[in-house]
Amino acid sequence: MSSMKTKFLQSKDKALNFAVGAGIPAGTVLSGTAGGCTGVCGSCGGTCLGGLALAVYLGGRVIFKRHNKTVLQAEPSANK
Amino acid sequence: MKNTLPFTLKRTAGYLFGFALLYAPFELYRRFMEGVLALQPGFFPHAFCPRIPTAEIFTSGFFDLNSVMVWSTIVFWLLCLVFGPFFCGRLCIAGFFTETLSHIVPDKYKIEWEKYVPVAHIRYGMLLAYMLLPLWYGFYPCAYCNFYFFDSLVSVIFGAALDFTLPLLISGVLYMVLFGLFTKGGRGYCRFLCPQGAMQSFWFYISARLGIAARIKVDESACVKCGLCVKSCPMRAMSIKNGSVQSSTALCIKCGVCSHNCPRGAIHTGR
Ligand code: SF4
Ligand code: SF4
Ligand code: SF4
Known about the structure:
heterodimer, A: mainly alpha, 0% strand, flat, B: mainly alpha, two-stranded antiparallel ribbon, two-stranded antiparallel sheet, 14 helices, 53% helix, 6% strand, binds iron/sulfur cluster
């Protein structure tokens, strides 16, 4: 039962992270700047938000997992 | 102690060739197209940019692109189906640059993202939305593009004036600092944010399953589970799962670093 629960939680986490990945480009829509914007030329100043949001999300995961001591240790095993 | 110099030099030479092929002031690809084949590749400064065709794949925009660009991209994808992500693994200086940069920072200060998030899921979620977005909301491919950032950096080195806009600055910080210097393997941008790399890996993932492209394989009988391959993989594609060493085709770029570092010669490519 507990292994089923773990599997469910892992799948849920993967789906959530897939959605986070999709949110990187899709999030630019919220900034209302995707149409015609090149993001790097400075003409709109909005499409970089997706990348920034990812950085914030990843930072949050690192802090949360370290705080709750739920950091994956086993894999990749040699990366300590 | 293994002599890594010849391998490193060979790798570096490949990436420098890729640099000369695509980036100003050399741009051998563009010169070849224009000078020898008398074709106009278009979309400067990137004479060859598969990010744009990737973003337009589901739209009519794909076939509105410059025909050299379309054909270059189709040939490029076919090559990825046959050989895997050869551009990432052998030619792309943008990825190799941050990989090299990451050696400056000691490992203890670098983040192993796999411990916190399933990297491949973020990578392919990003790719999917990147490809679907133009269907509804328009064009997105150059947003925080590391190629553009690297191209700008090179232009500055070769004397061009550059207006460092805020988005360009953010691209640079993400690309070089967070996902380069402070990421294990130095290829955080490649793994999270590069649609160009994700697309190549997508083709590789499919073709490896179909038995077309050769993938990284480990000879279990020779492997002593020392973990050196896992530790040295710049894409963090290698892992030890249930006591056996595996390479993930969703992330592997076939750079050969793992097999070079294996003390037992247990790693090879095969179908
Ligand atoms: S993932 Fe992108 S930046 Fe990284 S090596 Fe591949 S093409 Fe280059
Ligand atoms: S480096 Fe070679 S021997 Fe060591 S774990 Fe990897 S495949 Fe096995
Ligand atoms: S598994 Fe080996 S070939 Fe693949 S990316 Fe890692 S080091 Fe390179």
